Amino acid sequence: MRLLTHNLLACHAKSCVSTSNNFPLSFKEVQLELIEADFNEPFLRGFLNKVDWNALVVASRQLGDASLPEKGPDPTDPMIDGETLKALHHVLLEIHVIEGQMVCPNCAHIFQIRNGIPNMVSASAKC
Q1: Which family does the entry's similarity section mention (predicted)?
Q2: Where does residue 114 rank: exposed (0-12), middle (13-18), buried (19+ CB within 10 A)?
């Protein structure tokens, strides 16, 4: 699972749906794999306004990567620093969580990640 995906996931357990504290999910006991991906600047620029920057920074730091600046770039700025775009590319597209868990900060529900696939069904089935 890439952090691109993680940045879009929130806990959907019945007890969390009506709260605003169900995002971002925290990582626990993860195994990572770095998989090189082709740099695609237009994709990064287009996706930048959809990214929750703070959640992305927290997640990348949890996984041991501190390459992103604390404050995200302005998505409308055509002169975004190339180093920031390269760091964004690396964090969003090249860091893969292969095994581990994501934990809801509100209800502590655990979502398993197996073979790079997060199981997001378990919360709605159990709650």
Answers
A1: Belongs to the TRM112 family.
A2: exposed
How many degrees, rounded to 5, is the angle at CA 30 between CA 27 and CA 34?
A: 110
**Distance between CA atoms of residues 56 and 60, nearest Å:** 6
C-alpha 75 chain-centroid distance? 18
- Contact, 72 vs 64, CB < 8 A? no
The CB-side HSE value for 116 (13 A sphere, CA atoms) comes to 11
Q: Which domains does the chain show, CATH number per domain?
A: 3-126 (2.20.25.10)
Q: What span, in angstroms and rounded, lies between the C-alpha atoms of 38 and 67?
A: 18
